[in-house]
Amino acid sequence: MPAKQRKIAIMGFRSVGKSSLAIQFVNGQFFDYYDPTVENTFTKTVKIQGQEYCLTLVDTSGQEEYSIFPDAYAIDIHGYCFVYSIDNKKSFEVVKGIYQKLIALTGPVTVPILLVGNKVDLKMERHVSYEEGKQLAEHMKAQFMEVRYIYHLDHINHSFILMLISLIS
């Protein structure tokens, strides 16, 4: 049986770690450098309940608070991963804006959402509390986790697999 195709858009403010998340999930590697992304796609095939799924992660360029929501990220997308950095309040506000723009474009969101607070190793510079992230996730009806990709590969893999399971349920 051929692999079924599923696509997840990874969105958030610039420099929050969207590319690192995708690369770590697909390749199991962490790269500690920043190379601004225009847009990139990563694929990984996983087997769930005897069925293969080709999961495509669309690594989007960093969104700004006043940018429009690209139509391409509302069509043929099966789930969303919104990423912010716990040391950057603006990145958290941008994620809120992305979600509001998505609702304005598509109506109530019916696909799975994963909200990720990145860079927990920067706890001394924290500007977004765990509680704020959790509350936003509840508002979005999203899964929520805080990570530092280099330390939390198992959490990342588990979260994407759970998201894929909810896509096929």
TrEMBL record:
UniProt keyword annotations, A-Z: GTP-binding, Hydrolase, Lipoprotein, Magnesium, Membrane, Metal-binding, Methylation, Nucleotide-binding, Prenylation
Chief site of localization: endoplasmic reticulum
Location(s) in or outside the cell: Endoplasmic reticulum membrane
Membrane topology, from the record: Lipid-anchor
Catalytic reaction equation(s): GTP + H2O = GDP + phosphate + H(+)
GO function terms (MF aspect): GTP binding; GTPase activity; metal ion binding
Single biological process term from Gene Ontology: signal transduction
Pfam families assigned to the protein according to its UniProt record, in alphabetical order: Ras
A GO term from the CC aspect: endoplasmic reticulum membrane
Superkingdom: Eukaryota
Keyword Membrane: yes
Family statement drawn from the similarity comment of this UniProt entry: Belongs to the small GTPase superfamily. Rheb family.
NCBIfam families for this protein: small_GTP
Name the record gives this protein: GTP-binding protein Rheb-like protein
